[in-house]
Design brief:
Elements lengths: L5 E4 L3 H12 L4 E4 L3 H9 L5 E4 L1 H6 L3 E4 L3 H10 L7 E4 L19 H8 L4 E4 L6 H5 L9 E6 L2 H13 L3 E4 L6 H17 L14
Parallel strand pairs: 1-2, 1-4, 2-3, 4-5, 5-6, 7-8
Antiparallel strand pairs: 6-7
Helix pairs in contact: 4-5
Length: 211
């Protein structure tokens, strides 16, 4: 029996990059968007392992659902489902302030925790928010693997997301409970600040060094 696809809500740069990486390694992906026709040609370039349907249909088809939309849209989706029935939500968003001026949520909570509070019956895991889409599409660097922190309150859900991150070449690290997203979202701003505000460009990433 074939495995269930990974649902990706949103067909922008991050969603397409993750889909391409997973498909290359044998996974299938179903995109969920409000208007599938708008993105049908883009998704078709990924080949037969990628399909696109409505948001609710994609959620129904999968056990793992990646939020690859702006944060406010992700929060609305989380609230829109009465019961997520134990599905794993992978929050790849950051609660960015207008103009990339910082984060709109933080210090005593996080965007991921807000999504978890809104998504009844879901197991929320924070991942894929700390680097750019280009690094998700191709994580290979000559100096080693890109650091990908993962956190969530459900250990099984964390381990499944760590496996998905490892599959596409990341150094996926278990960072414990979902409250760690309070650190991971500002960490994402470090990459964004360097890449965009300081002009370093998008072809760099952070790695973990060990003795």
């Amino acid at each position: 029996m074939p495995s269930m696809p990974i649902a990706i809500l949103g067909a922008g740069n991050v969603g397409i990059a993750l889909a391409r990486a997973w498909i290359t390694r044998g996974e299938s992906v179903v995109f969920g968007v409000p208007n599938p026709d708008k993105y049908r040609d883009t998704v078709a370039t990924l080949g037969p392992s990628a399909t696109i349907v409505s948001t609710n249909s994609a959620i129904d088809a999968a056990e793992v659902v990646v939020l690859a939309t702006p944060y406010t849209a992700a929060l609305e989706v989380a609230r829109s489902i009465a019961d997520w029935r134990g599905r794993i939500i992978v929050d790849a968003t950051n609660p960015l302030a207008p103009g990339l001026a910082g984060l709109s949520v933080g210090t005593t909570t996080s965007g991921a925790e807000q999504i978890a509070a809104a998504a009844h019956g879901a197991r929320v895991v924070k991942a894929f928010n700390t680097t750019g889409a280009e690094n998700m599409a191709d994580s290979r660097y000559p100096g080693g693997a890109i650091f990908m922190p993962v956190c969530g309150d459900d250990a099984d859900a964390r381990s499944r997301v760590i496996a998905l991150a490892t599959l596409i070449g990341f150094d996926a690290v278990d960072c414990g409970d979902l409250s760690a997203a309070r650190y991971l979202e500002p960490f994402a701003m470090t990459w964004i600040h360097m890449a965009i505000k300081l002009g370093h460009g998008r072809s760099f990433a952070f790695a973990r060094l060990r003795r």
